Amino acid sequence: MKQSPQFAQINRECVACGCCEAVCPKDAVHIILGITAQVDKEKCVGCRKCAKECPADVITMVQRRAVV
């Protein structure tokens, strides 16, 4: 499967509620130490489900850098 040109990025204001982790279809989002969520950008397909579900609105989509 071709990677999306974007991936999810979670900012510091994350409260680790787990909503993003629950909706990720590729198991790319995980709660770390009950403090914050983290995205595995290699697994992330850029579907935006996590960003839409986040009640704190702390997830943004970031352009992948081209490999040169």
Key phrases:
single chain, 68 residues, alpha+beta, Alpha-Beta Plaits, two-stranded antiparallel ribbon, 2 helices, 26% strand
Question: Secondary-structure map with pairings?
Answer:
Layout: E1 6-10, H1 19-23, E2 29-32, E3 36-39, H2 49-53, E4 59-63
Antiparallel strand pairs: 1-4, 2-3
Instruction: List the domain count as a whole number.
Output: 1
- Gross morphology is globular
CATH class (first level) name = Alpha Beta
| Biggest sheet statistics | 2 strands, antiparallel
What would you call the structural class?
alpha+beta
What CATH architecture do you see? 2-Layer Sandwich
Radius of gyration: 11 Å
Total strands = 4
Detail the poorly predicted runs. none
Q: How much strand?
A: 25-35%
